[in-house]
Amino acid sequence: QVQLVESGGGLVQAGGSLRLSCAASERTFRTMGWFRQAPGKERDFVITIRWSSGVITYADSVRGRFTISRDLAKNTMYLQMNSLKSEDTAVYYCAAAQGPITSYLDVEYWGKGTLVTVSS
User: Which candidate, 116, 115, 118, 98, places its Cα nearest to that of 107?
Assistant: First the structure.
């Protein structure tokens, strides 16, 4: 059973930056990414990366501000968030799957989540 462990959440002012990490216990998947869930809202797609090719898919809401990278040797993925806005406040979940991820229905493995709070 793959375990995903997130770290790096916290409180940041609007306009600031934050980096999240997600470490996988093993690599039996081809896609990793991030979803987020704000209070009272659904869990939304944020960004994914194909592990072997490095191809990145962005949600429109984060394009140009967020980026994703991975360290193949460490089985770790990173989410760099810049120009943060109050609407980015949410619990961010690491996600992984064998195939492509376009919605939460495609996800096979979830992390427990890490809270990001952006103050205005």
Answer: 98
